[in-house]
Amino acid sequence: MHLTAPFAGWLPPADRIAQVIAPPYDVVSTAEALAQVVGKPLSFLHVSRPEIDLPPDTDVHSPAVYAQAAANWQALQLAGALEQMPRQAYYVYRMQMGAHVQTGVVVAAAVEAYLKGRIARHELTRPDKEDDRVQHVLSLGAQTGPALLAWRDQPEIALYLQQLTTRSADREAVGDGDVKHSLWIVDDPKQIQDLQTLFEAVPTLYIADGHHRSAAASRVAAAQPNNAKAQRFLAVAYPAQQMQILPYHRVISDLAGLSPEQLLTAAGEAFAVTALNGRPELNQRGDFGLYLKGSWYLLRIDPSLIALDPVARLDVSLLHDHLIGPHLHITDPRRDPRIDFVGGVRGLPELERRVNSGEMAAAFALNATSMADLMAVADAGRLMPPKSTWFEPKLADGVVSYAL
Questions:
Q1: 215: three-class secondary structure by DSSP
Q2: Looking at the structure, do residues 254 and 266 belong to the same domain, yes or no?
Q3: Radius of gyration in angstroms for the set of CA atoms belonging to the chain, rounded to a whole number
Q4: Cβ 220 vs Cβ 365: under 8 Å
Q5: Is residue 255 part of a domain?
Q6: Whole domain around residue 290: which residue ranges?
Q7: Does pTM top 0.85 for this prediction?
Q8: For residues 330 and 336, is the Cβ–Cβ distance under 8 A?
Q9: Tell me: the pLDDT tens digits for 197-223?
Q10: How many CB atoms neighbour CB 200 within 10 A?
């Protein structure tokens, strides 16, 4: 099976795409989705967050929610807000956020490649989240949330995409966060063959974001072995060097019985601790900011503690292994309610706000994980710690959907 394939996608018409596209389902809460759809009856959030159209006390995993998603999916089609392409195609997908630009391709990726590790993962998945995505896909008969993939060391693909995007985009709109989303439909048979051949030379595609979507797709494929379309899943692949990872910070609700002074003393066992007059500048691996009682501190890890192991040397691991775990007694950051995470563009002001409000006792600012680190972990067949990466810009839901 080819690593990627073209498909007849469902797209919003050019004159309606701005009314349809929405942020991914998993970066907005139900309340945020409700606020975003005011005055936007065609928003794709009605499909990805269908509980917004049901009573407030509705269980978001109830059969009624998935039935509502299917009804809303059909309603968008009947309203002419989604239309299926008449031919198989790839879709060049460019996102621009400020000065940052990345250009990739929407593909139907092979589930077989995912199962065999050619599409490499680096995160654990939770069964309840997988179940949710499986039910959503089965209810719609379509995959609407793409996985975000990356390739490395294939400049021929990026060069070919430049050639394909010299004309005006077929679809274009500004979405959440002032991100411009542009789409070029590639349905010329020779260009399709060229792209498929170029991707066959890619040894590994790396899942950057969308592990639950990918895992769910593999379960749907197993449940529908005779459905050829179900043996593929919706994905958007970008060159790794164009992708942007922002820091994923930590906030802690209490100090596990330590006073602020005792926490600083404990930090001094593995870190050089420096009081700052303002916000920290984190310039190297092993640098962290600590916000505590209205003041910032720079924590710099003892260099001898930075291991060669691809997981242990990550900043998220260094902070957890030498401070958050042993001194704040948070052993399972996936489930411990005492820790929360602040990602994306919210940055240090959000950390200060949450501590100053009294909601949290301390905040830790981290450097962003690099794509090189992510791929090294995946190449080693290892798993990243939870909440290690926050990709920006985010793919929009509703740009291209894949019917099974």
A1: helix
A2: yes
A3: 22
A4: no
A5: yes
A6: 248-367
A7: yes
A8: yes
A9: 999 999 999 999 999 999 999 999 999
A10: 10
